[in-house]
């Protein structure tokens, strides 16, 4: 059975969703509303299910539509990138790389690798989804991105996880805090201190709590935040100390905050690359992944 729809049918679907209605989408695409409706109907016929729920006041995605939307966005991105690459004149080809990355790696590590890659391939564009660990796994599984940089391998048999780096949890405190005078600490040194923690739903928190339970260590958290960057703000204000991955701490000398190693036991998270098993990467993504692997595995 053949699947009969056009690229403009996909663009019509995305336009209706993004512009929240048929009227504005028709104007943006320079189509009549009946013509736009026919394109949506043809796409729904090809998919075999309704993608949009139409009411007198609004248009909403169906469950199938919500699953289909990220795939359509990626198909259009790749289609546009291919056309862009074909028009490129010169030695370096164009294209786009789409990836998901946990925020700490996206902020502190990824930009340097991208800068080196762009020196060789200046026409490559990047679409980076800085997502939580669970959201990043889901984006890889749905095919919304080509690969992910994550701290979880997940249990999905359709995904592979290649470990790259051990990122230890460290203490972050103010320079004038008593614990800052010591270069190495144990978990017992943190007892009785006002601690700042990330949400219990965070992948980092889950990993840390599980490791401390196995080690028989119990810590009392005074503050709970959603983002690691917020915990550093509370530390800087002198409200407490925080335990967080080294990649999430300032990499350069900070005027107020210092980090200290925590041992007995050392607790770390594993950062790695998540891919769909058997999926082929575009040439540009394959080249970037090779550079990424080589950089992350280099000493220091």
UniProtKB/TrEMBL annotation:
PROSITE patterns for this protein: HTH_LYSR
Listed InterPro entries: HTH-type_LysR_regulators (IPR050950), LysR_HTH_N (IPR000847), LysR_subst-bd (IPR005119), WH-like_DNA-bd_sf (IPR036388), WH_DNA-bd_sf (IPR036390)
Record keywords, A-Z: DNA-binding, Transcription, Transcription regulation
Pfam families to which the protein is assigned, alphabetical: HTH_1 (PF00126), LysR_substrate (PF03466)
Domain HTH lysR-type: 1-62
SUPFAM superfamilies linked to this entry: Periplasmic binding protein-like II (SSF53850), Winged helix' DNA-binding domain (SSF46785)
Keyword DNA-binding: yes
Family affiliation: Belongs to the LysR transcriptional regulatory family.
PANTHER family named among the record's database cross-references: HTH-TYPE TRANSCRIPTIONAL REGULATOR YBHD, NITROGEN ASSIMILATION TRANSCRIPTIONAL ACTIVATOR-RELATED
Protein name as it appears in the record: LysR substrate-binding domain-containing protein
Organism: Microvirga terrae
């Amino acid at each position: 059975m053949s699947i009969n729809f056009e690229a403009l049918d996909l663009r019509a679907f995305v336009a209706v969703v993004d512009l929240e209605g048929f009227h504005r989408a028709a104007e943006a695409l320079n189509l009549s509303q009946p013509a736009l409706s026919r394109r949506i109907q043809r796409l729904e016929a090809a998919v075999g299910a309704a993608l949009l729920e139409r009411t007198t006041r609004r248009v909403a995605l169906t469950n199938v539509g919500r699953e289909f939307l990220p795939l359509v966005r990626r198909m259009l991105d790749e289609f546009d990138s291919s056309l862009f690459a074909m028009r490129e004149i010169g030695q370096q080809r164009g294209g786009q790389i789409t990836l998901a990355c946990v925020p700490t790696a996206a902020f502190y590590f990824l930009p340097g690798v991208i800068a080196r890659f762009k020196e060789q391939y200046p026409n490559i564009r990047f679409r980076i989804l800085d997502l939580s660990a669970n959201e990043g796994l889901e984006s890889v599984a749905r095919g919304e991105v080509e690969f992910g940089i994550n701290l979880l391998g997940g249990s999905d048999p359709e995904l592979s996880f290649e470990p790259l780096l051990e990122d230890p949890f460290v203490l972050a405190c103010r320079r004038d805090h008593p614990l800052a005078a010591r270069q190495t600490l144990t978990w017992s040194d943190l007892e009785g201190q006002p601690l700042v923690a990330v949400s219990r739903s965070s992948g980092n928190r889950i990993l840390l709590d599980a490791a401390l339970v196995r080690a028989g260590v119990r810590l009392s958290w005074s503050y709970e935040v959603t983002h690691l960057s917020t915990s550093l703000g509370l530390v800087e204000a002198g409200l407490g100390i925080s335990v967080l991955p080294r990649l999430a701490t300032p990499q350069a000398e900070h005027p107020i905050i210092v980090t200290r190693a925590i041992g007995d036991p050392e607790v770390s998270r594993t950062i790695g690359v998540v891919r769909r098993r058997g999926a082929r990467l575009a040439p540009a993504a394959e080249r970037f992944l090779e550079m990424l692997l080589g950089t992350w595995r280099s000493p220091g």
